[in-house]
Design brief:
- This protein may play a role in the biosynthesis of the prosthetic group of nitrogenase (FeMo cofactor).
- This protein is 48% helix and 11% strand.
- β9 (329-333), α16 and β10 (352-357) form a beta-alpha-beta unit.
- The longest helix has 28 residues, at 298-325.
- It has four domains: 33-182, 3-Layer(aba) Sandwich (Rossmann fold), CATH 3.40.50; 196-315, Nitrogenase MoFe cofactor biosynthesis protein NifE, C-terminal (Rossmann fold, 3-Layer(aba) Sandwich), CATH 3.40.50.12380; 326-425, Nitrogenase molybdenum iron protein domain (Rossmann fold), CATH 3.40.50.1980; 463-495, no CATH class.
- The chain starts with a helix and ends with a helix.
- The protein has a five-stranded parallel β-sheet with strand order 11-10-9-12-13.
- By secondary structure, it is α/β, with parallel strands linked by helices.
- The radius of gyration is 29 Å and the shape is globular.
């Protein structure tokens, strides 16, 4: 665990983080965040975070060295999409039992599992994940991976991120460290060119990166590696020959971008493909970075021409929704890059942001939100469920955009809700993605079901019979009331 402790400390002391640079030496040693209590790692544990970052590398076998439940709880936890290899959709685990732990058979079982995967699937690499159980029992997965790689002639990558060491975000960064230590730079491409870039922190959720890649293709820009969305092992291994990089989610992989710049002179910037203006700005920044790295300056003119064409098409499509959504109030309960990029995108079409969560946002993300909203009161670190419910119940927002875990708060408050997190079914990146996002918001807000569910229930609309019936305190009055109220003959019934 000594090497793991050193790796965690290195991840915490991140020079690329403006907030971290402002600390003194003593504060930096204490880490970027207070470690979470084991078993209470809100939002996922470190193992979960590492698996999220690496599993979208689609032609790799992802082997979890743990009891079965660890793989069952983490499999397919994001809506990433693949255009080819599907090996990543197969679950591999050593399925340790109490007997394996007592008899010290963990390392032997891991070696046999790697051999079985090699013989059955012949992948280019096997990623082996340490977990709480195997870290506590002291299994040396790095030694086993090294021996298996030499024996079977394939890359076997140890991912040392057991769940108890911290949060999901820490696991994200440790996954980036595993790529730096064992994958990136291990393959030399024979087709490197001046227009090669890396996209870092892009997960291709619902296939949304496929809405952006055609734009880059039209500019002659090749994505050497998209890490991790829809990636192949050889692409990641040769990513060190890219000329520039774009960081989409710095919360997850800022350490990867910074160290690739230091080792291989790959400059990077942080941007977003959410919204029309941000997509255009990202394309301009990519072109400018490539020119600084030696590409033909004509790419700047081609980029500007493409932006003008695509913006005109997108705004024309959005005109139909602008009148219907102008002034509608949005509550965002998300985090990371979406906390500011989606805010900017929605404000472009005239929607009002009444609040956005910054719980998982970096200091840079928060500064962007301040510049966009011009009001700190619309930013909240964490809002309890009852506070979200009260806000929606009193109609302070027309729709809430969040993840699936908070959808029932909106539904209970009879307020429209749209999934903006990783479980969503629709891609929202790029120009076409922005149109799709606005279309889904329009469908949610103007769905006729909301008018119906907000109506009083039928049992709340019954007339008060006490007002219609006379006083029935005595027997005579009761008999008279019954005779007046209930027909006694067929004729009476027909007349009444």
């Amino acid at each position: 665990m000594t090497s793991l402790s050193a790796k965690i400390q290195d991840v915490f002391d991140e020079p690329a983080c403006d907030y971290n640079r402002g600390k003194d030496a003593k504060a930096r040693k204490e880490g970027c965040a207070r470690p979470l209590t084991p078993g209470a790692a809100a939002g996922g544990c470190a193992f979960d975070g590492a698996k999220i970052v690496l599993q979208p590398i689609t032609d790799v076998a992802h082997l979890v060295h743990a009891p079965l439940a660890c793989e069952g709880n983490s499999w397919d936890n994001r809506g990433a999409a693949s255009s080819g290899a599907m090996l990543w959709r197969t679950s591999f685990t050593t399925d340790l039992t109490e007997l394996d732990v007592v008899m010290g058979q963990g390392e032997r079982k891991l070696f046999k599992a790697i051999r079985e995967i090699k013989e059955t699937y012949a992948p280019p690499a096997v990623f082996v994940y340490s977990t709480c159980v195997t870290a506590l029992t002291g299994d040396d997965i790095e030694a086993v991976c090294k021996r298996a790689g030499e024996k079977f002639g394939l890359a076997v990558v140890p991912v040392n991120a057991p769940g108890f060491i911290g949060s999901k975000n820490l696991g994200n960064k440790l996954a980036g460290e595993a790529l730096l230590d064992h994958v990136i730079g291990t393959v030399e491409p024979d087709d490197a060119g001046p227009y090669d870039i890396n996209i870092l922190g892009e997960f291709n959720l619902s296939g949304e990166f496929w809405l952006v890649k055609p734009l880059l293709d039209r500019l002659g820009i090749r994505v050497r590696a998209c890490i991790p969305g829809d990636a192949r092992y050889i692409d990641v291994a040769s990513a060190h020959r890219a000329r520039a990089a774009m960081m989409v989610c710095s919360t997850a992989l800022i350490n990867l971008a910074r160290k690739m710049q230091e080792r291989w002179d790959i400059p990077f910037f942080e941007g977003s493909f959410y919204g029309i203006s941000d997509t255009s700005e990202a394309l301009r920044n990519i072109a400018e970075l490539l020119v600084k790295q030696g590409a033909d300056p004509q790419i700047l003119d081609r980029t500007q021409t493409l932006i003008a064409e695509q913006e005109a098409i997108a705004w024309k499509k959005l005109d139909a929704y602008r009148r219907r959504l102008q002034g509608k109030r949005v509550l965002l309960n998300t985090g990371g890059v979406k906390s500011w990029s989606v805010v900017h995108a929605l404000m472009e079409i005239g929607m009002e942001i009444v609040g956005t969560s910054v719980k998982k946002s970096t200091v840079e993300d928060r500064e962007r939100i301040k510049q966009i909203l011009k009001d700190d009161n619309h930013m909240f670190e964490q809002m309890a469920a009852r506070e979200l419910y009260a806000m929606l119940l009193h109609h302070k927002a027309d729709i809430m955009l969040s993840g699936g875990r908070t959808q029932f708060i909106a539904l209970k408050a009879k307020t429209p809700w749209l999934d903006i997190n990783q479980e969503r079914q629709h891609p929202y990146a790029g120009y076409d993605g922005m149109v799709e996002l606005v279309r889904q918001i329009d469908l949610a807000i103007h769905n006729p079901i909301w008018c119906q569910v907000r109506e009083p229930a039928p049992w709340d609309c019954k007339p008060d019979l006490k007002e219609e019936l006379p006083d029935t305190k005595n027997e005579a009055a009761t008999l008279h009331a019954v005779q007046e109220f209930v027909p006694t003959t067929a004729d009476d019934f027909g007349e009444r």
